[in-house]
Amino acid sequence: MNIVITGASKGIGFETALAMAADKNNTVIAISRNKDGLAKLQQQATTEGMHIITHAADLKLLDEAAMQNMFAPYPVIDVLINNAGILLNKSFMETSGDEWRNMFETNVFSQLSLTRFLVPMLSKSNVAHIVNIGSMGGYQGSSKFVGLSAYSASKAALANITECLAEELKPLNIKVNCLALGAVNTEMLAAAFPGFDAPVSGAAMAKFISSFALGSHQFFNGKILPVAVSTP
Question: Catalytic: which of 19, 151, 158, 210?
């Protein structure tokens, strides 16, 4: 399979890239703006004989020409994992309009731009699956936390878009689902909840995401699925 993962330079994205590339028949196209993290990923992949192609790019700045160049070698894409995202831990009254816009540009709009570009390539696959990595913070009815309103709202938008795209892309046989993750031991969680010891490691969650992305398109479409032992 040809698999695209955004936000692949650290945390869950990094571990998911490795988990999906463990099958040497897969090619993982890993995207992030963090060059150092991608270099580390590429080094580990090379050592283990994995097929991981890294691209250092800010999704917000990718235009049509840049995406054409990036994906020219891959006429068919089988799996897209929209994992890239940022977190802001700041009260609502202190969060500026620019910070809200940046949150949605990164966590929502840039993901949609890439998704829209890749749909024609996904439509050529017999197992096409788009997996949006959401959060329990964006899951309706879940516990909410002070300082995370912008982040949670952006993840709620991603969840709703998942349901909409699942319907729109049905004629192309592309499945779309969202995993609303709970507490995972990553840098992002540490920024949101300093001192909190998450019960799930990034590597363990990555194995679940990999398995879900590769096989669950047969059973789920348009679903927002909570994947949480604790919140946080």
Answer: 151
Strands of 175-181's sheet, edge to edge?
Answer: 52-56, 27-32, 2-6, 79-82, 129-135, 175-181, 224-227
Q: Please list, residue by residue across 201-210, b when 16 or more beta carbons sit within 10 angstroms of its beta carbon and e when fewer do.
A: ebeebbbbbb
Give dist(CA 98, CA 3) in Å, integer.
32
Cα distance between residue 168 and residue 213, in whole Å: 19
pLDDT in tens, 19-43: 999 999 999 999 999 999 999 999 9
Q: Nearest to residue 137, comparing CAs of 99, 105, 184?
A: 184
CA angle 139, 145, 147 (to 5 degrees): 115
151 is catalytic: yes
Global model pTM greater than 0.85: yes
- What are the distances in angstroms from CA 169 to CA 6, 9, 102, 155, 212? 21, 29, 27, 21, 19
